[in-house]
Write a structure and sequence with these properties.
The complex is a heterodimer. Chain A is mainly alpha-helical. Helices cover 70% and strands 1% of the residues of chain A. Chain A is globular and about 70 Å long. By secondary structure, chain B is α/β, with parallel strands linked by helices. The longest helix of chain B has 24 residues. The N and C termini of chain B lie far apart (74 Å). Classes of the chains: A mainly alpha, B alpha/beta. Chains A and B meet through helix 9, helix 18 and helix 19 of A and helix 1 of B.
Chain lengths: 486, 312
């Protein structure tokens, strides 16, 4: 069940009604309604893996209690490591085992050893990476003394399975999320209205921008043998925007739904294409994942290797980014994608700008960025776009072929243009992209771009209605371009 | 909370009202299927895939073969992914068809290997994710079921392809490029079909569904089984994937005592846009020739010089 679907709308109306019908004094009942909704949501998506979610919840609840109860720090650390190993073990089994089996088989074949290791038929639980990371951070924070174990199982289970962010994040931290469930949530008109605005903004990005761009991008890559080089360059440049609109759009919808339920969850994106270097980019992109890995991987590693100076820092960065790449999926291209970004940090570390947070300045009557910032933003964007070719490739061979197509500057390839049908998919998307960037620049200090309370009420209402109409009239169809059949 | 709920409902209603106004004003003919799903039920139908959707001009058939008080024939062909012969297409035709006790209906059932075979990743079920499966309500205007599922303005800026909702024909107005560019384009498009051919399988299930469709149509009037012309290169691909296709179709036609009108011996005479779909004028010329064949056959079972006599 995806958030921008009729099924979800009907589901959410029921949840909203049941959630707020509960009297304010009945916190436990409200949390039970929420948990029932979350498990129903997950079961609707995939009933077979619901026992895994529930089983891990119970295991980590117990481990949290054991860590809290232990008086000896070494015992605490032992229980924590057991929990982390269990979580990572589950993740490895479902997500990576077959990948390593296949890779090992290929290595053996390379050495002339023929043989077939059994390929396990495993069903990957949806949202596994997200809720495993939530569970792991819970145990680590208890062990570090930042958090007390949650005594209430229903509250803890809600933290793990909270349906708006269960399948695609953001990855919430227990210290911020759990206290919100420890008191009943009365309906907050301002927060709910802000939530509806954020849902609308997310739907606009996902359905108008991401879906329309995917028609062009997938269309070009799908027929890359016949597509001309200019079209491939355009596809390469549009893919980061497509990904951003898709992922951040979904995050906005999740955050908005949570706000309507009176719960604030982590922000996940902060105008990443306004970043002036790659470090700034990763501080603005998939923030919940990068901050999680910063706190639980990079920081401990950089402390461990602090005696190595810059080399220690570089090693910590590379390991962290390899893990970021691998987190995305079981493919060597993802790992290389992570490594590529890690390597891009090296110049920043060497020139000392790694830790510097840039402050975007604006100039002139129109509040535009400075030309220096624009150059740096474009440079960062191009580096990101190149890295996403790796991200998109199914294999290293595929990556090689894609790269060859990008670098094909023969006159015959340069003269080939995409079909008008494909270009027509861009017509609604390009103005929408410009609008998105304009809104994000204008409201870059706000948590999302549609927070424009400074505008007159009638202007805001007109904008909301225009966005709704625009979503219906110009929404792209995810999953391909039907007119290829003609 | 009451104010919040009222505000949300107000915005939803305002947006719905404006949307209705937008749908009433903006044209919908750029969407290849919507126009076919807002009209009334039909007596007479042309069935097949996109080759048929573009290649047969219903108004010519109406003019030449139908009586003045007959309801004009309607082109209800879609694409090889949406309307291959199968359960989904059968049920959709059932929803579109009016039973005709006077038996004055006319049905042109166009067949080709792609429409009766399986290929691609989801070959045997490829139509189950398409419009004909998802949209059950196909005779209402506006069609909210369709509008809720699909964006009919996705191809608003599609310059050349548009649907004539009155006849159901999907028209390609693109001017033919020079022959060198056309050949290059045809060759590029045929690559896709060659890729499909690699895992193509003739489908007995689809043939069985074709027969069910013909059983359903037969009591209402006259039926003709037709194989349309394509480019010689495309025909070569089709022969490679199903060499006895014509024999098979002839035997089905014989079993139903209807003509099998096969135009593939005249492939070179009809120009295509991409090796598969007839150009607009070629489609009109072909429709005229098809009417000639049907008129020449007249009574069921007669053969014309165009049909190949092949052993069963």
């Amino acid at each position: 069940m995806i958030v921008n679907s009729i099924a979800f709308l009907l589901f959410f109306v029921l949840v909203f009604a049941a959630y707020y019908m509960v009297p304010q004094t009945q916190r436990r009942l409200q949390n039970l309604v929420l948990l029932t909704a979350s498990y129903s949501f997950y079961a609707y998506t995939d009933l077979r893996t619901l026992p895994i979610l529930i089983g891990l919840t119970l295991l980590f609840y117990g481990l949290g209690y054991l860590i809290q109860r232990a008086s000896d720090d070494r015992v605490k650390a032992r229980w924590m490591r057991l929990g982390v190993a269990a979580g990572l073990g589950v993740l490895f089994y479902f997500k990576y085992l077959n990948f390593f089996v296949d890779s090992f088989t290929q290595v053996l074949r390379g050495w002339g050893i023929e043989g077939e290791f059994p390929h396990l038929q495993v069903l990957l639980p949806l949202g596994l990476s997200f809720f495993i990371f939530r569970l792991i951070s819970y145990l680590i924070d208890i062990q570090r003394g930042k958090l007390s174990a949650e005594p209430n199982l229903v509250i803890f289970a809600n933290y793990v399975a909270f349906f708006p962010s269960l399948l695609s994040g953001p990855i919430d931290r227990p210290g911020v999320f759990l206290p919100q469930l420890q008191k009943a949530r009365a309906f907050d008109t301002e927060l709910a209205t802000d939530g509806m605005r954020q849902i609308l903004w997310g739907m606009f990005k996902k359905m108008v921008i991401a879906n329309n761009l995917s028609v062009f991008v997938e269309g070009i890559w799908g027929q890359s043998a016949n597509a001309g080089t200019p079209a491939i360059w355009v596809a390469v440049l549009l893919y980061p925007i497509q990904m951003y609109a898709d992922f951040s759009g979904y995050s906005d919808m999740s955050i908005g739904v949570a706000k309507v339920l009176g719960i604030r969850i982590a922000i996940n994106f902060n105008c990443p294409f306004f970043a002036v270097n790659i470090a700034e980019y990763w501080r603005r992109w998939h923030i919940s994942l990068t901050s999680w890995l910063t706190d639980y991987v990079f920081s401990p590693l950089s402390i461990r290797y602090r005696d190595w100076g810059n080399r220690g820092l570089i090693l910590s960065i590379l390991i962290t980014f390899v893990l970021i790449g691998a987190w995305h999926g079981a493919r060597w291209t993802f790992v290389l994608f992570g490594l590529y970004h890690g390597l891009l940090y090296i110049p920043l570390m060497l020139n000392g700008s790694f830790f510097k947070k840039s402050k975007l300045k604006s100039q002139g009557r129109w509040d535009l960025p400075t030309s220096k910032d624009v150059r740096q933003m474009i440079g960062t964007f191009l580096l990101v776009a190149l890295g996403l070719i790796l991200f998109r490739a199914e294999s290293l061979t595929d990556f090689g072929q894609m790269l060859l197509r990008v670098l094909d500057v023969r006159p015959s390839a340069l003269q080939q243009l995409p079909s008008l049908q494909l270009i027509s998919a861009l017509i609604p998307a390009v103005p929408a992209v410009c609008f998105m960037f304009w809104m994000e620049w204008r409201n870059r200090q706000k948590t999302f771009a549609l927070q424009s309370e400074d505008r007159a009420a009638w202007q805001r209402r007109l904008l909301y209605v225009a966005l709704v109409i625009g979503i219906f009239v110009f929404r792209g169809e995810a999953g391909g371009f039907i007119y290829f059949q003609f | 909370m009451d104010r919040f709920v009222i505000k949300v409902i107000f915005y939803a209603l305002a947006a719905a009202a404006l949307l209705m106004a937008v749908y009433a004003v903006l044209p919908y003919d750029r969407d290849y299927a919507y126009g076919r799903m807002i009209g009334p039920k039909q007596h007479s139908l042309i069935l097949g895939s996109s080759r048929t959707a573009q290649g047969i001009a219903p108004e010519i058939i109406t003019q030449r073969l139908q009586k003045p008080d007959d309801q004009p024939i309607y082109n209800y062909a879609f694409t090889m992914n949406d309307s291959p012969y199968g359960w989904v297409y059968w049920q959709s035709i059932k929803r579109k068809l009016i039973r005709n006790k006077q038996k004055t209906s006319l049905f042109i059932v166009c067949v080709d290997p792609w429409a009766l075979g399986d290929f691609g990743k989801n070959g045997a079920n490829r139509e189950f994710n398409g419009r004909l499966e998802r949209i059950k309500s196909i005779n209402t205007h506006p069609n909210w079921d369709y509008l809720g599922h699909y964006n009919i303005y996705q191809s608003l800026f599609n310059r050349y392809l548009h649907l004539d909702a009155k006849t159901g024909r999907y028209i390609n107005d693109k001017p033919a490029p020079d022959s060198v560019r056309l050949q290059r384009y045809i060759e590029a498009k045929l690559q896709d079909y060659r890729a499909h051919a690699l895992n193509f399988k003739a489908s007995e299930n689809r043939i069985a569904n074709l027969k069910e469709i013909m059983n359903m149509l037969r009591p209402n009037g006259k039926m003709y089984l037709v194989r349309m012309p394509v480019s010689p290169q495309m025909y070569h691909i089709e022969q490679s994937i199903w060499s006895n296709f014509d024999q098979r179709m002839q035997s089905i036609a014989d079993a139903y005592h209807i003509p099998y009108i096969n135009f593939t011996n005249r492939n070179a005479q009809f120009a295509t846009t991409d090796g598969n779909h007839l150009q607009k004028q070629a489609g009109e010329a072909f429709t005229q020739d098809l009417c000639d064949s049907i008129q020449a056959k007249g009574v069921r079972g007669e053969r014309t010089k165009f049909a190949r006599r092949s052993p069963n």
